Amino acid sequence: MAIEHDYFGLLESGPDGAIFWSENVDLGDMRVTVDLTAPDQEDVTPDALDAAASLVTSLDEIDRRARNAMLAEVDNRASDVTEFILMMTDRYGDEIEDVLVDVSGDAPVDIVRSLELMSMTILADEHGGTDPFAVLEYALDPDETDDVLLVNFASDGTVQSVTSAD
Predict the structure, then answer these.
(1) Under the phi-then-psi rule, with left for phi > 0, alpha for psi from -120 to 50, and beta for the rest, what region is 19?
(2) Can you list the alpha helix ranges (DSSP code H) found in 73-106?
(3) Which residue, 123, 122, 125, is CA-closest to 42?
């Protein structure tokens, strides 16, 4: 079976009923991998695909919301964002400025601004639920895929949480 959508085209399911779509999207000077997936195409509604398309086509706004959510957690010492910033500051030491895109003197803000959006995974079967509908993955160093921050979005485009990959 297959589902057809104006944005995603023909989404064919595999033998197990799962669907998968992937494309690279340019966001400024970043190349972001966008994946749409669902374990069972029967759980994917046209509204879910419309919401997913909306997130992809407004990736610049979604990225801005994600970074604002990360910045909002900088002052919380127990947040995953603060832990990530401390880990990056410790790892790079005096060379931290070499990996930062913009150096304003406020290291936490500079680190969040310098994060690279690596991927967006859309879990199309989670539309309207409490679990994340989309997960954005950020890294300071694209080669260090273990040290990332994940920003979880609801299907309406609101940020649910910011977590580390641990």
Answers:
(1) beta
(2) 80-92, 96-99
(3) 125
The span from the first CA to the last CA of the chain, in angstroms, equals 36
CA distance to 100, 124, 128, per residue, from 70 (Å): 16, 24, 23
Query: How many CB atoms are located within 10 Å of the residue 164 CB?
Result: 15
Domain boundaries, the chain: 19-164
d(CA 56, CA 51): 9
Global pTM exceeds 0.70: yes
CA distance 128 to 113: 30
Which residues does the chain have with pLDDT short of 50? none
Residues 60, 27 contacting (CB under 8 angstroms):
yes
